[in-house]
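New to this. Explain the following:
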Amino acid sequence: MKHSNLRFLLGAVMFAYACPVYGQEAKTASPAVPAKSATQTGADKSVDKSGVVGDKSVMTLASDKVKPADEPLAPYLLAAEDVLSVVVINFPNLSVPQMVVPPDGKITVPLLEPLSVLGKTREEVRDLLIEKWRKYVINPSVTVTLTSKRRENVLFYGYVARPGTMEYRRSLHILEALAEVGGPLLTGDLSQVGVTHKSGSKRLLDLSHPELKGGTEADVLLEVGDVVYIPERRTQFSVLGEVMRPGSFEYKEDMTVLDALTAVGGVKETADLNASMHTHNGKDSKIDLDGLLRHGNMIANIKMAAGDRLVVPEIRNRTYIFGAVARPGFYIYKPGDRILDALNGSGGPLPDANMSAVNLIHIDNTKNVSKVEKIDVMKFLKKGDMKYNAVLAPGDVVFIPNRKRGVTLSDVFGVLSGLSLVSSVGRIFTGGLGR
Protein backbone atom coordinates (compact mmCIF):
# COMPACT_ATOMS: atom_id res chain seq x y z
CA MET A 1 0.00 0.00 0.00
CA LYS A 2 2.76 2.27 0.92
CA HIS A 3 4.50 1.46 -2.37
CA SER A 4 1.43 2.29 -4.42
CA ASN A 5 0.95 5.63 -2.63
CA LEU A 6 4.54 6.48 -3.21
CA ARG A 7 4.26 5.75 -6.93
CA PHE A 8 1.15 7.96 -7.17
CA LEU A 9 2.84 10.86 -5.38
CA LEU A 10 5.93 10.64 -7.62
CA GLY A 11 3.73 10.63 -10.76
CA ALA A 12 1.85 13.72 -9.57
CA VAL A 13 5.08 15.66 -8.99
CA MET A 14 6.41 14.76 -12.44
CA PHE A 15 3.13 15.85 -14.07
CA ALA A 16 3.28 19.18 -12.24
CA TYR A 17 6.81 19.87 -13.62
CA ALA A 18 5.88 18.77 -17.13
CA CYS A 19 2.85 21.05 -17.55
CA PRO A 20 4.68 24.45 -17.39
CA VAL A 21 7.24 23.24 -19.92
CA TYR A 22 4.52 22.16 -22.28
CA GLY A 23 2.70 25.48 -21.90
CA GLN A 24 5.83 27.51 -22.65
CA GLU A 25 6.44 25.51 -25.82
CA ALA A 26 2.89 26.24 -26.87
CA LYS A 27 3.38 29.96 -26.31
CA THR A 28 6.65 30.22 -28.32
CA ALA A 29 5.41 28.20 -31.26
CA SER A 30 4.39 30.15 -34.37
CA PRO A 31 0.69 30.79 -34.41
CA ALA A 32 -1.30 29.40 -37.28
CA VAL A 33 -1.68 31.87 -40.18
CA PRO A 34 -5.22 32.10 -41.45
CA ALA A 35 -5.69 31.76 -45.24
CA LYS A 36 -6.06 35.06 -47.08
CA SER A 37 -9.02 35.83 -49.24
CA ALA A 38 -8.60 36.42 -52.98
CA THR A 39 -8.98 40.17 -52.40
CA GLN A 40 -6.27 40.23 -49.77
CA THR A 41 -3.91 38.22 -51.97
CA GLY A 42 -4.33 40.59 -54.89
CA ALA A 43 -3.66 43.60 -52.65
CA ASP A 44 -0.15 42.36 -51.91
CA LYS A 45 0.64 41.86 -55.58
CA SER A 46 1.43 44.55 -58.11
CA VAL A 47 1.18 44.75 -61.90
CA ASP A 48 4.14 45.98 -63.89
CA LYS A 49 3.88 47.98 -67.14
CA SER A 50 3.97 44.85 -69.24
CA GLY A 51 0.87 43.50 -67.44
CA VAL A 52 2.74 40.81 -65.46
CA VAL A 53 1.66 40.34 -61.87
CA GLY A 54 4.51 39.84 -59.41
CA ASP A 55 5.88 40.49 -55.99
CA LYS A 56 6.74 44.14 -55.30
CA SER A 57 10.29 43.48 -54.16
CA VAL A 58 11.05 41.30 -57.21
CA MET A 59 9.59 43.87 -59.62
CA THR A 60 11.69 46.66 -58.13
CA LEU A 61 14.89 44.76 -58.76
CA ALA A 62 13.85 43.83 -62.28
CA SER A 63 12.95 47.41 -63.07
CA ASP A 64 16.33 48.62 -61.82
CA LYS A 65 18.06 46.21 -64.18
CA VAL A 66 15.96 46.82 -67.29
CA LYS A 67 15.31 50.55 -67.28
CA PRO A 68 18.25 52.78 -66.28
CA ALA A 69 17.59 56.24 -64.97
CA ASP A 70 17.20 58.92 -67.69
CA GLU A 71 20.16 61.23 -68.10
CA PRO A 72 19.41 64.76 -66.89
CA LEU A 73 19.13 67.49 -69.47
CA ALA A 74 21.94 69.98 -69.71
CA PRO A 75 21.34 73.08 -67.54
CA TYR A 76 20.01 76.22 -69.19
CA LEU A 77 22.78 78.76 -69.65
CA LEU A 78 21.91 82.44 -69.65
CA ALA A 79 22.61 84.68 -72.63
CA ALA A 80 21.57 87.98 -74.20
CA GLU A 81 17.82 88.70 -74.38
CA ASP A 82 16.96 86.44 -71.43
CA VAL A 83 14.67 88.20 -68.92
CA LEU A 84 15.58 87.80 -65.22
CA SER A 85 14.00 88.70 -61.91
CA VAL A 86 16.23 89.19 -58.85
CA VAL A 87 14.48 89.24 -55.46
CA VAL A 88 16.26 89.83 -52.13
CA ILE A 89 13.69 88.85 -49.51
CA ASN A 90 15.31 90.45 -46.46
CA PHE A 91 16.56 93.51 -48.34
CA PRO A 92 13.79 94.48 -50.82
CA ASN A 93 15.61 97.65 -51.87
CA LEU A 94 18.23 95.45 -53.59
CA SER A 95 15.63 93.60 -55.68
CA VAL A 96 15.22 94.11 -59.42
CA PRO A 97 11.80 92.75 -60.49
CA GLN A 98 12.71 92.54 -64.18
CA MET A 99 15.79 93.02 -66.31
CA VAL A 100 16.75 92.02 -69.86
CA VAL A 101 20.24 90.61 -70.28
CA PRO A 102 22.00 93.04 -72.67
CA PRO A 103 24.13 91.94 -75.65
CA ASP A 104 27.33 92.12 -73.59
CA GLY A 105 25.75 89.89 -70.92
CA LYS A 106 26.40 92.30 -68.01
CA ILE A 107 23.50 93.03 -65.66
CA THR A 108 23.31 95.94 -63.21
CA VAL A 109 21.97 95.61 -59.65
CA PRO A 110 22.12 98.01 -56.64
CA LEU A 111 25.50 98.49 -54.88
CA LEU A 112 27.44 96.34 -57.37
CA GLU A 113 29.42 96.94 -60.53
CA PRO A 114 27.95 95.40 -63.71
CA LEU A 115 28.58 91.66 -63.69
CA SER A 116 28.43 89.14 -66.54
CA VAL A 117 25.89 86.34 -66.51
CA LEU A 118 26.77 84.93 -69.95
CA GLY A 119 27.04 81.15 -69.90
CA LYS A 120 25.98 80.91 -66.22
CA THR A 121 23.01 79.10 -64.70
CA ARG A 122 20.47 80.89 -62.47
CA GLU A 123 21.97 79.17 -59.44
CA GLU A 124 25.46 80.39 -60.33
CA VAL A 125 24.17 83.97 -60.71
CA ARG A 126 22.40 83.72 -57.35
CA ASP A 127 25.55 82.50 -55.58
CA LEU A 128 27.59 85.24 -57.25
CA LEU A 129 25.17 87.95 -56.09
CA ILE A 130 25.14 86.58 -52.53
CA GLU A 131 28.92 86.57 -52.43
CA LYS A 132 29.23 90.17 -53.63
CA TRP A 133 26.33 91.59 -51.58
CA ARG A 134 27.75 90.10 -48.37
CA LYS A 135 30.32 92.89 -48.43
CA TYR A 136 27.46 95.35 -47.77
CA VAL A 137 24.60 93.44 -46.04
CA ILE A 138 24.28 90.49 -43.70
CA ASN A 139 23.17 87.13 -45.13
CA PRO A 140 21.12 88.31 -48.13
CA SER A 141 18.42 85.83 -49.19
CA VAL A 142 18.51 85.97 -52.97
CA THR A 143 16.28 84.34 -55.58
CA VAL A 144 17.02 84.57 -59.34
CA THR A 145 14.17 83.66 -61.65
CA LEU A 146 14.16 83.30 -65.45
CA THR A 147 10.90 85.01 -66.36
CA SER A 148 11.29 84.82 -70.14
CA LYS A 149 13.68 82.87 -72.33
CA ARG A 150 15.46 84.37 -75.28
CA ARG A 151 14.43 83.23 -78.75
CA GLU A 152 16.93 80.66 -80.04
CA ASN A 153 16.85 79.77 -83.71
CA VAL A 154 18.14 77.31 -86.28
CA LEU A 155 18.28 78.43 -89.92
CA PHE A 156 17.40 76.22 -92.90
CA TYR A 157 18.07 77.41 -96.44
CA GLY A 158 18.64 76.04 -99.91
CA TYR A 159 16.41 73.45 -101.55
CA VAL A 160 14.04 72.98 -98.63
CA ALA A 161 10.23 73.33 -98.57
CA ARG A 162 10.07 76.20 -96.06
CA PRO A 163 13.45 77.94 -95.82
CA GLY A 164 13.96 80.27 -92.88
CA THR A 165 14.39 80.14 -89.10
CA MET A 166 12.74 77.77 -86.67
CA GLU A 167 12.80 77.96 -82.90
CA TYR A 168 15.53 75.90 -81.28
CA ARG A 169 14.83 73.54 -78.41
CA ARG A 170 17.04 71.20 -76.50
CA SER A 171 17.44 67.64 -77.82
CA LEU A 172 16.47 68.77 -81.34
CA HIS A 173 17.81 66.33 -83.94
CA ILE A 174 18.38 67.37 -87.55
CA LEU A 175 15.89 64.92 -89.08
CA GLU A 176 13.16 66.12 -86.72
CA ALA A 177 13.95 69.73 -87.56
CA LEU A 178 14.04 68.97 -91.29
CA ALA A 179 10.58 67.42 -91.07
CA GLU A 180 9.26 70.53 -89.29
CA VAL A 181 10.37 72.77 -92.17
CA GLY A 182 8.62 70.57 -94.71
CA GLY A 183 11.54 68.40 -95.80
CA PRO A 184 13.68 68.84 -98.91
CA LEU A 185 12.35 69.80 -102.32
CA LEU A 186 12.41 67.18 -105.06
CA THR A 187 15.50 68.93 -106.36
CA GLY A 188 17.20 68.92 -102.93
CA ASP A 189 20.20 66.67 -102.35
CA LEU A 190 20.09 65.00 -98.92
CA SER A 191 23.38 63.21 -99.51
CA GLN A 192 25.38 66.42 -98.96
CA VAL A 193 23.66 68.39 -96.21
CA GLY A 194 25.90 71.08 -94.74
CA VAL A 195 25.71 72.18 -91.08
CA THR A 196 27.60 75.29 -89.97
CA HIS A 197 27.89 76.01 -86.24
CA LYS A 198 28.16 79.44 -84.61
CA SER A 199 31.84 78.72 -84.00
CA GLY A 200 32.37 78.55 -87.76
CA SER A 201 33.07 74.82 -87.83
CA LYS A 202 31.31 72.86 -90.58
CA ARG A 203 30.30 69.29 -91.21
CA LEU A 204 28.83 67.42 -94.17
CA LEU A 205 26.08 64.86 -93.55
CA ASP A 206 24.62 62.13 -95.74
CA LEU A 207 20.89 62.11 -94.92
CA SER A 208 19.78 60.25 -98.04
CA HIS A 209 17.13 57.63 -97.19
CA PRO A 210 16.19 59.51 -94.00
CA GLU A 211 13.82 56.71 -92.97
CA LEU A 212 16.93 54.65 -92.18
CA LYS A 213 18.99 57.40 -90.53
CA GLY A 214 16.98 58.09 -87.37
CA GLY A 215 19.01 57.33 -84.26
CA THR A 216 22.25 56.97 -86.24
CA GLU A 217 25.36 59.16 -86.13
CA ALA A 218 24.04 61.09 -89.12
CA ASP A 219 21.00 62.30 -87.16
CA VAL A 220 23.02 64.81 -85.15
CA LEU A 221 21.83 67.06 -82.35
CA LEU A 222 21.53 70.64 -83.53
CA GLU A 223 22.99 73.56 -81.61
CA VAL A 224 21.72 77.09 -81.10
CA GLY A 225 22.43 79.20 -84.16
CA ASP A 226 23.18 76.29 -86.49
CA VAL A 227 22.79 76.95 -90.23
CA VAL A 228 21.64 73.97 -92.30
CA TYR A 229 22.05 74.04 -96.08
CA ILE A 230 20.32 71.62 -98.47
CA PRO A 231 22.11 71.81 -101.86
CA GLU A 232 20.56 71.20 -105.26
CA ARG A 233 20.47 67.62 -106.45
CA ARG A 234 22.42 67.62 -109.65
CA THR A 235 21.04 65.56 -112.53
CA GLN A 236 23.46 66.52 -115.29
CA PHE A 237 27.10 66.16 -116.25
CA SER A 238 29.12 68.37 -118.58
CA VAL A 239 31.91 67.84 -121.11
CA LEU A 240 33.76 70.92 -122.31
CA GLY A 241 36.64 71.73 -124.63
CA GLU A 242 37.78 69.89 -127.75
CA VAL A 243 34.79 67.58 -128.19
CA MET A 244 32.24 67.46 -130.99
CA ARG A 245 29.23 68.72 -128.97
CA PRO A 246 30.41 70.39 -125.75
CA GLY A 247 27.77 71.15 -123.13
CA SER A 248 25.66 69.66 -120.32
CA PHE A 249 23.71 66.43 -120.65
CA GLU A 250 21.33 64.35 -118.53
CA TYR A 251 23.16 61.98 -116.22
CA LYS A 252 22.32 58.28 -116.25
CA GLU A 253 22.98 55.77 -113.49
CA ASP A 254 26.38 54.05 -113.63
CA MET A 255 27.58 56.27 -116.47
CA THR A 256 31.32 56.06 -117.24
CA VAL A 257 33.80 58.38 -118.94
CA LEU A 258 33.41 56.50 -122.23
CA ASP A 259 29.62 56.91 -121.98
CA ALA A 260 30.09 60.64 -121.45
CA LEU A 261 32.43 61.01 -124.44
CA THR A 262 30.03 59.00 -126.59
CA ALA A 263 27.18 61.30 -125.58
CA VAL A 264 29.11 64.34 -126.87
CA GLY A 265 30.09 62.68 -130.16
CA GLY A 266 33.72 61.96 -129.29
CA VAL A 267 36.82 64.16 -129.25
CA LYS A 268 38.30 66.37 -131.95
CA GLU A 269 41.69 65.95 -133.54
CA THR A 270 42.82 69.04 -131.66
CA ALA A 271 42.09 67.40 -128.27
CA ASP A 272 44.99 67.09 -125.85
CA LEU A 273 44.19 63.67 -124.42
CA ASN A 274 47.16 63.81 -122.06
CA ALA A 275 46.01 66.98 -120.27
CA SER A 276 42.30 66.27 -119.75
CA MET A 277 40.73 66.92 -116.34
CA HIS A 278 37.88 65.31 -114.40
CA THR A 279 36.08 67.36 -111.74
CA HIS A 280 34.12 65.61 -108.97
CA ASN A 281 32.68 67.41 -105.92
CA GLY A 282 34.75 70.49 -106.79
CA LYS A 283 38.06 68.59 -106.89
CA ASP A 284 40.05 68.41 -110.14
CA SER A 285 42.09 65.37 -111.09
CA LYS A 286 43.98 64.47 -114.26
CA ILE A 287 42.51 61.70 -116.39
CA ASP A 288 44.46 59.70 -118.99
CA LEU A 289 42.17 59.88 -122.03
CA ASP A 290 45.12 59.06 -124.28
CA GLY A 291 45.57 55.70 -122.57
CA LEU A 292 41.82 55.07 -122.60
CA LEU A 293 41.05 55.99 -126.22
CA ARG A 294 44.28 55.02 -127.96
CA HIS A 295 45.58 52.12 -125.89
CA GLY A 296 42.44 50.67 -124.33
CA ASN A 297 43.55 51.32 -120.74
CA MET A 298 40.21 50.83 -118.96
CA ILE A 299 41.55 52.06 -115.62
CA ALA A 300 40.77 55.57 -116.82
CA ASN A 301 37.15 54.61 -117.61
CA ILE A 302 35.95 55.65 -114.16
CA LYS A 303 32.34 56.08 -113.12
CA MET A 304 30.84 59.53 -113.50
CA ALA A 305 28.47 61.13 -111.00
CA ALA A 306 25.78 63.75 -111.39
CA GLY A 307 27.44 67.17 -111.41
CA ASP A 308 30.79 65.86 -112.70
CA ARG A 309 32.67 67.70 -115.44
CA LEU A 310 35.16 66.58 -118.08
CA VAL A 311 37.42 69.19 -119.68
CA VAL A 312 39.36 68.21 -122.81
CA PRO A 313 41.77 71.08 -123.63
CA GLU A 314 43.15 72.00 -127.01
CA ILE A 315 46.51 70.49 -127.69
CA ARG A 316 49.36 72.95 -127.25
CA ASN A 317 52.36 70.88 -128.34
CA ARG A 318 51.86 71.02 -132.07
CA THR A 319 53.66 72.44 -135.09
CA TYR A 320 51.95 74.10 -138.05
CA ILE A 321 52.93 73.82 -141.71
CA PHE A 322 51.33 75.76 -144.57
CA GLY A 323 52.00 76.68 -148.17
CA ALA A 324 53.09 74.36 -150.96
CA VAL A 325 52.59 71.07 -149.09
CA ALA A 326 50.23 68.14 -149.67
CA ARG A 327 48.27 68.48 -146.39
CA PRO A 328 48.65 71.92 -144.83
CA GLY A 329 47.67 72.16 -141.15
CA PHE A 330 49.29 70.91 -137.95
CA TYR A 331 50.83 67.78 -136.58
CA ILE A 332 51.69 66.68 -133.04
CA TYR A 333 55.06 68.02 -131.99
CA LYS A 334 57.64 65.69 -130.51
CA PRO A 335 60.82 66.86 -128.82
CA GLY A 336 63.70 66.95 -131.30
CA ASP A 337 61.51 67.39 -134.39
CA ARG A 338 63.03 69.30 -137.31
CA ILE A 339 61.68 70.92 -140.49
CA LEU A 340 61.78 67.68 -142.49
CA ASP A 341 59.71 65.98 -139.77
CA ALA A 342 57.07 68.65 -140.26
CA LEU A 343 57.23 68.16 -144.05
CA ASN A 344 56.77 64.42 -143.67
CA GLY A 345 53.83 64.99 -141.31
CA SER A 346 52.12 67.14 -143.94
CA GLY A 347 52.54 64.69 -146.78
CA GLY A 348 55.66 66.29 -148.25
CA PRO A 349 56.21 69.37 -150.47
CA LEU A 350 54.39 69.96 -153.74
CA PRO A 351 56.40 69.93 -157.00
CA ASP A 352 56.48 73.75 -157.22
CA ALA A 353 57.56 74.21 -153.57
CA ASN A 354 60.51 76.57 -153.14
CA MET A 355 62.61 74.57 -150.68
CA SER A 356 65.41 77.14 -150.87
CA ALA A 357 63.28 79.81 -149.19
CA VAL A 358 61.44 78.02 -146.38
CA ASN A 359 60.18 80.41 -143.71
CA LEU A 360 60.28 79.26 -140.08
CA ILE A 361 58.12 81.48 -137.86
CA HIS A 362 58.97 81.33 -134.13
CA ILE A 363 56.14 82.62 -131.91
CA ASP A 364 56.69 83.57 -128.26
CA ASN A 365 53.21 84.00 -126.75
CA THR A 366 54.60 84.97 -123.36
CA LYS A 367 56.28 88.08 -124.84
CA ASN A 368 53.83 88.47 -127.74
CA VAL A 369 56.62 88.56 -130.28
CA SER A 370 57.30 86.61 -133.47
CA LYS A 371 60.41 86.12 -135.56
CA VAL A 372 60.78 84.81 -139.12
CA GLU A 373 63.86 82.83 -140.08
CA LYS A 374 64.63 82.12 -143.77
CA ILE A 375 66.12 78.64 -144.23
CA ASP A 376 67.55 77.05 -147.41
CA VAL A 377 66.46 73.46 -146.87
CA MET A 378 67.96 72.47 -150.25
CA LYS A 379 71.46 72.84 -148.76
CA PHE A 380 70.56 70.20 -146.22
CA LEU A 381 69.16 67.94 -148.92
CA LYS A 382 72.28 68.37 -151.08
CA LYS A 383 75.06 68.58 -148.47
CA GLY A 384 73.50 67.19 -145.29
CA ASP A 385 74.25 70.34 -143.31
CA MET A 386 71.98 70.01 -140.24
CA LYS A 387 71.86 73.74 -139.56
CA TYR A 388 69.57 74.00 -142.61
CA ASN A 389 67.23 71.42 -141.09
CA ALA A 390 66.42 73.55 -138.07
CA VAL A 391 65.10 72.16 -134.80
CA LEU A 392 61.45 73.09 -134.18
CA ALA A 393 59.70 74.20 -131.00
CA PRO A 394 56.05 73.77 -129.94
CA GLY A 395 53.91 76.32 -131.76
CA ASP A 396 56.37 76.96 -134.61
CA VAL A 397 54.95 77.66 -138.07
CA VAL A 398 56.71 76.37 -141.20
CA PHE A 399 55.72 78.16 -144.42
CA ILE A 400 56.78 76.65 -147.77
CA PRO A 401 56.48 79.30 -150.49
CA ASN A 402 55.39 78.52 -154.04
CA ARG A 403 58.22 78.93 -156.53
CA LYS A 404 55.90 80.70 -158.98
CA ARG A 405 54.10 83.01 -156.53
CA GLY A 406 56.62 83.57 -153.78
CA VAL A 407 55.35 84.79 -150.38
CA THR A 408 52.89 87.66 -150.13
CA LEU A 409 51.55 89.62 -147.18
CA SER A 410 48.16 87.99 -147.69
CA ASP A 411 49.79 84.57 -147.25
CA VAL A 412 51.19 85.63 -143.87
CA PHE A 413 47.85 87.09 -142.77
CA GLY A 414 46.11 83.91 -143.83
CA VAL A 415 48.42 81.73 -141.79
CA LEU A 416 48.44 83.86 -138.65
CA SER A 417 44.74 84.71 -138.64
CA GLY A 418 44.00 81.00 -138.84
CA LEU A 419 46.10 80.58 -135.70
CA SER A 420 44.64 83.66 -133.94
CA LEU A 421 48.07 85.32 -134.08
CA VAL A 422 47.31 88.38 -136.21
CA SER A 423 48.53 90.62 -133.37
CA SER A 424 52.02 89.34 -134.09
CA VAL A 425 52.02 90.46 -137.73
CA GLY A 426 53.51 93.85 -136.88
CA ARG A 427 56.61 92.15 -135.47
CA ILE A 428 56.90 89.34 -137.98
CA PHE A 429 59.07 91.25 -140.43
CA THR A 430 61.98 91.54 -138.00
CA GLY A 431 63.68 88.77 -139.95
CA GLY A 432 62.17 89.34 -143.41
CA LEU A 433 60.35 86.84 -145.59
CA GLY A 434 61.95 84.55 -148.10
CA ARG A 435 61.09 84.85 -151.78
Remarks:
- The chain has a mean pLDDT of 78.
